[in-house]
Amino acid sequence: METRYLENVRLLVVEDNQFMRSILRTVLKAFGARQIDEATDGEEALKAIKVHPPDIIIVDWEMKPMNGLDLVKRVRTDRGSINPYVPIIMVSGYSEMHRITAARDVGVNEYLVKPISATMLFNRLQRVINKPRPFIRSADYFGPERRRRTVAYQGDERRNQEAEVDWGLGDEAKDIGERREGDKEARKEEPAEERKEGA
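The structure corresponding to this sequence follows.
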């Protein structure tokens, strides 16, 4: 997927795992990115933001001493924040819906579950660039508008469909759902002895 889509966009990748940072850098370069800064945790990222303000931040959740969630809070709400409106894409190994909701509630624009694909990342980048959601401020929240739940669904797909109606992270919910379905099918095809041994 070679493109010049990001050639004028400055990105900050915040990830403590060197291998994952390398993967993200390679993918972003394939999208045409020329300006890619890196940080290994939230504190380092805050310093990097002051030196080279990014147009988009891609951040991991689990880092020390400052994790991704706390970084997003600081970027969105600190008085001295250079750009509280900067688009933020969280890339995490956590796929539970309560985790995705927590990310939404601190002001994350998009959420991706590892392992990621180039297509998934490109779709999220397109969304924050071409279809940015308006920002809202309330007593306990500042960040991109969160869509309200308007329909109550029943059945196995209820959780995924609510996520899509709620706040625009439906693609991630679909990705997770597809992976779960794929895992179920794979388990069905395994011989009974192998299933028992690997359970």
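The helical segments are 18-30, 42-51, 68-77, 97-106, 118-130, 158-167, 170-189, 192-198.
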